[in-house]
Structures are given as structure tokens and as C-alpha cells.
Design brief:
Elements (H helix, E strand, L loop, with lengths): L1 H7 L6 H8 L5 H45 L5 H13 L4 H21 L7 H4 L22 H5 L7 H4 L1 H30 L3 E2 L13 E4 L5 E3 L4 H4 L3 H18 L1
Antiparallel strand pairs: 1-2, 2-3
Helix pairs in contact: 3-4, 3-9, 4-5, 5-9
Keywords: Membrane, Transmembrane, Transmembrane helix
InterPro entries: Piezo (IPR027272)
GO molecular function: mechanosensitive monoatomic ion channel activity
Length: about 260
């Protein structure tokens, strides 16, 4: 966490930049440069914390959308989504598998729904209504419900196909963004491990939140934080708070 923040503000380390920011701008070029630097630094910070927030909560949003779809549209297909949500909430280490199965099932359902709108599909042939007939006794409490297998599964002919499959398209977009976010964060951490010349500790618990902690491995198989270690935490309150924030973020990820 702190490493990423330092990376976003690494341009402020140069003496020339610090001198311009601290001194009053005398020319319009210096004013423009100060405005550009501050805007760029703010953009990098927002970008960094935005990706971190997405890494924490995008999978929760995917599961929430799956539950909303199953609630707003009750059909046989959405039973698959409920089962996947239950597994995803119970076993976080199956996140990639849940995303893959959900994306495959949702894509297949969208394809079937679009094909069902073709003129070659005869609604009166697919829908077959079976009622209780020629029975000597019919219970008054019995409901005569038509047996429409296609509609029970979730397929029906509609003039507004965009509204019919809109939520499933939204779910597909969220799943795609989740895959992009995981790939982007993994690639970024690998680049940082090379840049700081330290070992990137892999989390042996493949859970929802993969903690970001750069550590230096010592000869005796012990490790310490590369940016702020335990010895530096004793130097002052500021260093202690940095170490505490980094360590809590790492432990929060493991938990």
C-alpha cells in the first residue's frame, strides 16, 4: 500500500520539482508546471486507490448482481447463479473458477435468448399446455398451470430483447472488468518487485483480497518490510504509523 503511494509521488523527490513547488511562481510557465504536477499527482493517487478499491470489492459486486438477477427474474437458469453465489461466498479460493463458470453460463444464456427471438422458432410448437382432462375427480384447490418448459428455463419471445437480457450483459461486463483488474494488479506487483529488487511474497491463501507487501528475505529465512521495517518503526510516531498501516493491510489480506 505504502509502496504504491510512494510510487505515485516519486516525481516529488527531485530537487528541481521541490524547489518549484515550494517557491512562489514568478512566470506563467512555473504556474502551469505546478498545476500540471499537482493534477498529475492527484490523478495517480486516485488511479492507484481506485484499482485497490476495485480489487477489494469488485467480486462482491459481481455476487450482488447475480443475486439481484435471480431475485428479479425467477427462472430455472438462475438456479445456476444462486448455486455459484453460494459457492463463491463459502470458498473464496474458487474465485477464478466461479468467474469462469458464471461467464460461460451467462454467455450461453444470452446466445440462447437471442436465438429464441428468430422467426424459425415457433412459439406454438415449443409451448405445449397440458391440462387435467377426463378425470373423474378434480381437486378444487388444484391449479391448472400450463407446462411451458422454455419459459420455465427463462426463454421467451419478447419485442424488447435489450431489457430482457440487459442484466446479464451487465454481469458479463462486470466479470470482464474483474478479470482485467486481477491481471493488471498482478502485473503491477511483478513490476514493482523488479524495480525495488525485492522478493514479492506470494500469498499461499488464494483469497479475495491478495495482499500487497514487498519484503526482503534474509539469510536466516526471516523477512522484513522493505519500505518501513520493524527497526524503523521505533524511530518515531510517523514511522510507526506507516509500519502499522502496512502490516495491518497485509494481515487483513491474509484473514
Amino acid at each position: 500500500m505504502l509502496t504504491g503511494f510512494l510510487e505515485n509521488t516519486d516525481h516529488a523527490n527531485s530537487f528541481h520539482t521541490q524547489q518549484i513547488l515550494q517557491c512562489e511562481a514568478k512566470t506563467w510557465q512555473e504556474t502551469l508546471y505546478k498545476f500540471y504536477f499537482r493534477t498529475n499527482r492527484l490523478y495517480k493517487q486516485i488511479n492507484y486507490y481506485g484499482w485497490r478499491f476495485a480489487e477489494l470489492h469488485i467480486f462482491k459486486l459481481v455476487l450482488l448482481i447475480m443475486v439481484l438477477i435471480s431475485t428479479l427474474k425467477v427462472c430455472g437458469f438462475n438456479t445456476i447463479l444462486i448455486i455459484l453465489v453460494t459457492i463463491g461466498l463459502t470458498f473464496f479460493h474458487l474465485r477464478k473458477l466461479i468467474n469462469l463458470l458464471t461467464l460461460s453460463a451467462t454467455g450461453l444464456y444470452i446466445l440462447l435468448s437471442m436465438c429464441y427471438q428468430f422467426e424459425i422458432v415457433k412459439q406454438h410448437i415449443i409451448e405445449k399446455n397440458f391440462f387435467i382432462k377426463n378425470s373423474s375427480h378434480i381437486d378444487s384447490n388444484m391449479s391448472l398451470i400450463p407446462n411451458d418448459t422454455a419459459k420455465w428455463f427463462g426463454l421467451e419471445s419478447t419485442p424488447n430483447i435489450d431489457r430482457f437480457i440487459g442484466l446479464y450483459i451487465l454481469l458479463t461486463i462486470r466479470l470482464t472488468f474483474d478479470a482485467i483488474e486481477r491481471y493488471r494488479q498482478k502485473h503491477r506487483r511483478l513490476l514493482l518487485s523488479v524495480r525495488f529488487n525485492v522478493h514479492l511474497v506470494e500469498n499461499r491463501f488464494p483469497i479475495l483480497f491478495q495482499p500487497f507487501a514487498l519484503k526482503t528475505i534474509n539469510d536466516d529465512n526471516t523477512y522484513e518490510f522493505d519500505i518501513v521495517n520493524y527497526q524503523q518503526a521505533d524511530q518515531g510516531i510517523y514511522d510507526f504509523l506507516k509500519y502499522l498501516a502496512n502490516f495491518i493491510f497485509y494481515r487483513f489480506g491474509l484473514e
